[in-house]
Amino acid sequence: PHPYRPPFGAKPEDAGQVVLDYIAHLFKTKLPPDEVGAIFFEPIQGEGGYVVPPQGFLPALQELARRHGILLVADEVQTGSGRTGRFLASAYEGLDPDIVILAKGLASGYPISAVLFKEELSSWPPGAHGSTFGGNPVAAAAATATLDLLEEGLMQNAYEVGAFLREELAKLQADFPRLGDVRGRGLMIGLDFVKDPGTREEDPELRDRVAEAAFAKGLLTLPAGPSTLRLSPPLVLSRAEAALAVELLGEVLRELA
User: Do 11 and 131 belong together in one domain?
Assistant: First the structure.
């Protein structure tokens, strides 16, 4: 459910409920819930455009899954490992997933992934599952060092600097209304560009021009979804560096305007 572009013609405040109603409709008409093994979700949609679901949607989704005996699998590859200011973005909504998937930031970019699951779900004896690079000691050491750094302040830094960065980026909207939405949590921030702030129609061309112009000024960004520019800087980002990023983006927007 996209609060900025609610599905099914819903009002922003109803975006979550219409999606839940649609899932319930599918359960009644297309897919019996007892045939569903698990629901996979991202606490914040990544490649889809850094979409933060409306408050209360994820707990309601968890309740729906529990009611039907369906497992809840949190894909925290992009959102986990402190990116949003908490170790798991699911924690913002008090979720209790049955399975959590981690990777990427778990070892500061060194190749590693992890699947965490509740003990009662385990049916494998020790050694029943393995892979060629599973248990790589260098990757494990990188992950251990990363976890120490997160607990020693980087997670809190992501929370505080991320809040500052979103606040400063939101100020750019007053002078550049085609920057339709600024959203995210911690240092996982999306800038959604539109052709018209009234219709909120996506503008991928403008988004790409902003990314290219920012790159020319030394600021690295990355597209996501139809018209979103994502900012996902290292968790060591300082407030001064965040302010510089906003300054450079402001220059880009003024030039393109």
Answer: yes
